[in-house]
Give the backbone structure.
Amino acid sequence: MSRRKKLFPCGHKGYGQRCHRCDQAQVAWERKKQEKNAWEDKFDKDPIDLRTLPRNVVFKARKILKELANRKNYREFHGKRLRHDRFVISIPVTRHYRLICRDQGNLLVPEAVISHEEYNVCKPGH
Ligand SMILES: [Zn+2]
């Protein structure tokens, strides 16, 4: 077997039938693509759209949504009823994001995760 380096069509030099550098890059790219797809697929399972939110907000919101679905009380997440609409409950997700839920009697229906700025715009009299 010859140990002479050869020049691959990609421009890299190396041994063997295929360029190992390009093979490795291909594997890394495939893995990254799979991770991205797995991340995007999860949004289909969320009860509300979390796609536009920062990653850490998505994680925290999912945790709260899951626990609410398991009938955990919103007060455990420091959720509060809005003063001007007692059927709307605001739960802090991070310092800048709130999960808005609607109280439908014995059911708490998540509506959206909104930023603090959007939340303040929603308030009447502002
Ligand atoms: Zn190559």
The domain at 47-122 is CATH 3.30.2310.20 (YaeB-like fold). The helical segments are 20-42, 55-69, 116-122.
